[in-house]
Design goal:
79% of the residues lie in helices and 0% in strands. The chain is an all-alpha fold. GO terms for molecular function: cytochrome-c oxidase activity.
Length: 193
């Protein structure tokens, strides 16, 4: 590879990373808006202050933390030249990501079983926010799973090595961001009214 191609590749890699960071900042702004609205709405008279978050939300939190750990281990395996192990860890991350979503929906079912609904005559503004915030996060986890599918495909095709793993690194950064975002959101919903 000559210097021009190398420089072009470095610029391209930097552009991809910058786009990821812009996307994550915009997501933070969106969730900051929803959590701000949640805080403002908590002053309403019909606000439920004794809502207990579903147990499945806590289980899904443990699952998404494990998925971040498996993604880190996969990235380290690529750096160490352990391609087969990296592939297995990436697939494990995918399985854990799907399990996270399953437990999120179980959490929704737990809330509905307690008589809490997103909309309708028995709904409440607080529950609507909880459903909305969790559902929008799930949508972004689905986007993370799609990016993980691309990473797994590229890994199987042998596109990553100890010297070249930008795509994997970008996918991992987004995945860890989603993990940290969920931990923040769960803590926020737990501690704020």
């Amino acid at each position: 590879m000559d210097i021009t191609q190398n420089t072009l590749k470095e610029k391209n890699d930097r552009a991809k990373k910058m786009m990821l960071w812009f996307g994550m900042v915009s997501l933070v702004m969106g969730f900051a808006g929803w959590t701000s609205a949640y805080i403002v709405s908590s002053a309403r008279e019909d606000w439920i202050s004794d809502l207990v978050l579903p147990q499945s939300f806590y289980i899904s939190t443990a699952i998404i933390i494990l998925s971040s750990i498996s993604y880190i281990l996969a990235k380290n395996a690529v750096k160490d030249g352990k391609s087969e192990l990296a592939t297995k860890l990436l697939v494990g991350t995918m399985v854990l990501g799907v399990a996270f979503i399953i437990f999120q929906f179980r959490g929704f079912s737990e809330m509905i079983a307690q008589g809490y609904y997103f909309t309708g005559p028995t709904s409440n503004i607080k529950l609507s926010y909880v459903f909305l915030i969790a559902a929008v996060h799930i949508v972004h986890v689905v986007a993370g799973l799609l990016s993980l599918l691309v990473v797994i495909y590229n890994q199987i095709k042998g596109k990553y090595s100890a010297q070249e793993y930008v795509g994997l690194s970008i996918g991992a950064t987004f995945w860890h961001f989603l993990d940290l975002l969920w931990i923040y959101l769960l803590g926020f919903m737990y501690f704020v009214g």
